Amino acid sequence: MKKTIKILLYIAGIFLIVAVGLIAWFVSVTKDASLDENKMTETTQNINVFYSDGSPLKSDEGYVKLYETPEHLQKAFIAVEDKRFYSHKGVDIKSVLRAIKNDVTSLSAKEGASTITQQLVKNLYLTNEKTVERKFKEIKLALILESKYSKEQILEKYLNTVYFGEGAYGVKKAARIYFDKKPEELSEEQSALLAGIVKAPSFYDPFINPEEAKKRRNVVLNEMAKENYISQSRVKQLKNKDIILNFNKNSSCDEILNNAAISDAASLIGKSEKNLKGLNIYLSIDKKTSDELPAPDEYGINTDFSFIIIDNKNFSVTAFKSSVGEIKRSPASTVKPWLIYAPAIEEKIITAATKIKDEPTDFNGYKPRNNSDEYFGFTNARDCLCKSLNVPSVKLLNSLGIERAISYADKMNITIKNSDASIALGNLSGGMTLREIASAYLPFSNRGNYSLASIIDKITDQNGKTLYLKSTKTKRIFSEATAYIINDALKLTSKTGTTKKLNSLDFEVCSKTGTNGNADGNQDAYCVAYTSEYTVAVWLGNKNGEKMPNEISGGSYPTVLVADALSDIYKDFKPGEFNQPDSVVKVKINNNEYEKSGRIYLSNGDKTDPCFYFTKGTQPQKKFSERLPEIYDFKINYEKPYVLVTVEKDGNTEFEIRNAFDDIVYDSFTGAEAKLLAKDNYIYKFYILPYKFNGKNKIYGSRVPLPSVNTCKNLKNPLYYR
């Protein structure tokens, strides 16, 4: 008994020492933790975003009073976030003990025990770091907060500061973004959805992961039923309801930019979007230029859209206008220059003059089709890109190899998860934002160098300390030569290709279109164009995935919008031309032979011969000279009593068959079958002598010996010469 008492006293002593130590640690860590009561009375958003001229974005939704929110909204948050909200004093001891027990049992530290009061403290006063010291401060400030403010005041402030994703701080903005409603108009299931989102706003975003959002909503409804806030029968009804979201085409550009700025800022300084309070974000975007960008409704069409202008030299977005923000969509044929043609030139698989046969082709079950099912036969690579032909793009991908093509995307941090032939036409899983698509063209105006175009120039904290200052670091993707050769092809696109609506511009502009759709309509339509100074890109589509009429394609309205923007940019001056690097040579080639055989020779001086740009070292070195006739292939077979010979040759070549005594035993000019009578018990030796007839004389090529024919025995298998 005494021994047991000693052990218990020993254990109690240890606990007392630990407790005293923890209390001392708590006091030491939290001695400077104090409550700035101004933050409880502020009603403006806690992140400030500014245009390049210093004017602020007006994206604040305003403050909502607790009495303006429905009771079921309040109960949804309490049920899932803090069941004993009205009974604890800021810290829920039961939840803390349960979390400790579960963490010890699972050997992890995943389960939290933060009350709504603690969450508010963290949102208003603390960082998002996961340390014991921060937790101590959170607990102390939560206790102080509860002693000074009522539960209703705390819940009201919480609902106005919690982050819901999509750039929405506060329930008022979240209600409008997700449902186009005021908070008081929210239904029970909509309130449950919003309460569920705050656990992980990116993951439970219903625009991005509707199924996960629905599951989380139903969890909240179950928790509400457990607390008797709602009946089980009502929960059953609500669980069956689909999530109907607001795909509002009239969101302000300020709001959309605000969302993009918050997302980018979080990435740049390595913090959660939830934890950016007090930051000042300075954009590279000019408000006046952005406001003046045209919109589709000005042209009589009703679609969602995004419009972006990038300063090529400093890799900054200077203008942005959108009805949807930075959503990811299929980039369609806008990938061809940077994913297919530039890598193929860089790897010296092709030159701009290389001919590729454009014809219906089955690639192991994948059958790409050109627009209107029109095919052009053997076409040079420059024209294939200019016309955005689909079959040649897939053929080039096969020559490159999918892994090698994707490696170029990887260099630009463009994620391609699927690895099939359809990526040659822009079928990229996960899609791309318009900024990513436009940025992928920046190497062509920057001598092969890349950086993702930035919308943020600077970020400071609430005390003015600079947390981020733009300093562009570029990465070489292509050589200067490859970039210039692509520019040459895309300049032609603006003259005679898919963007010929840009032909009226009186300065150099490179461009490319992209259209994703089928005979039933188009889902995405793009035009990307760039000068030596600016890149302009437009996307048309519908955020909800509805198809547009087929007349809305990349070469139609998007190109017109781009043309108008470029005309406005260059109304008072003209851009400089693209400078040809020393690593590129311009060569005139022999068009006659090029058209007949596809072979590339230097021009003999004909004024009509075409010119192409080549990476130095890949250009033709010789002029064309008339080739001697030649035999490509033949087959010889003895079928008693005849020796049968078939020959493969070009259309201008004839041939003689001669025996060992040089006698002509057959001449193809006669048009007869090469059927030679052979007697038994002989060994025959023949050879083929190809020739071309110039009208007067035969011009002979090299003789081709044929295998001997032994008529002493039957030859069961035919003989081949290759």
Mind explaining what this structure looks like?
The chain is an alpha+beta fold and 722 residues long. Among the domains are: 1-31; 60-243, Biosynthetic peptidoglycan transglycosylase-like (Penicillin binding protein transpeptidase fold, Orthogonal Bundle), CATH 1.10.3810; 584-615, no CATH class; 631-721, Sandwich (Immunoglobulin-like), CATH 2.60.40. The chain is built from 22 helices and 26 strands. Strands 4-3-13-12-11 form a five-stranded antiparallel beta sheet. Strands 18, 19, 22, 23 and 24 form a five-stranded antiparallel beta sheet that branches. A hairpin with a 3-residue loop joins strand 12 (521-530) and strand 13 (534-541). The chain is elongated. Mean pLDDT is 86; it is low at 103-111 and 718-722.
Q: What is the helix content? A: 25-40%
Overall shape? elongated
Can you summarize the main beta sheet?
Answer: 5 strands, antiparallel
Strand order of the largest sheet: 4-3-13-12-11
How many individual β-strands?
Answer: 26
Radius of gyration, in Å, reads 37 Å
Here the CATH topology of one domain equals Penicillin binding protein transpeptidase fold
Content-based structural category: alpha+beta
CATH architecture of one domain: Orthogonal Bundle
Low-confidence stretches: 103-111, 718-722
Q: Tell me the span between the first and last alpha carbons.
A: 103 Å
Supply the number of helical segments.
22
Give the name of the CATH superfamily of one domain.
Answer: Biosynthetic peptidoglycan transglycosylase-like
Strand content: 15-25%
